[in-house]
Description:
Blueprint: H1 4-15, H2 17-54, H3 70-76, E1 89-94, E2 103-108, H4 123-127, E3 136-140, E4 143-147
Antiparallel strand pairs: 1-2, 1-3, 3-4
Amino acid sequence: MVSPLDAKLGRDLWRMKGQALAIAVVVGLGVLMLVMMDGLVNSLTETRDAYYARYRLAQVFAPLKRAPDRVLDDLRAIPGVAAVEGRVTGGALIDLPGLAVPARAEAISLPPMGRRGSMPCISRAAACSTRPGPTKSCCSTASRKPTGSSPATGSRRP
């Protein structure tokens, strides 16, 4: 035997079956999105970890302004730190032929010669359809200055 309240509930649900179906669809889609986003986050995390391990990238990058070299020794002393490397970086805007607006560039210092590897090639400049030449117009720290590069090596001239 069905109680009167259960019968009323059944009648009310039958009258608003469209709304009940819409609510069920919204809840189902919400659960679907939650499962999908969890899988996406896990996949991206695993991909990032594999990429960092394959190319031996740092797990932590810590940009500092005007830090003395002795900070590197303090960082090397932290347990679990495999390698510490200090670099000098700076941003610039470079006028390139064919571009309406200046290109944004970031200059990163190279490790001292003798440690590991050799000087990088200039294939990146070739990929951007530019070559080392006498001068390029460059703007860094709010003033526009012409800078030069040696045609043979790509190294900066004073």
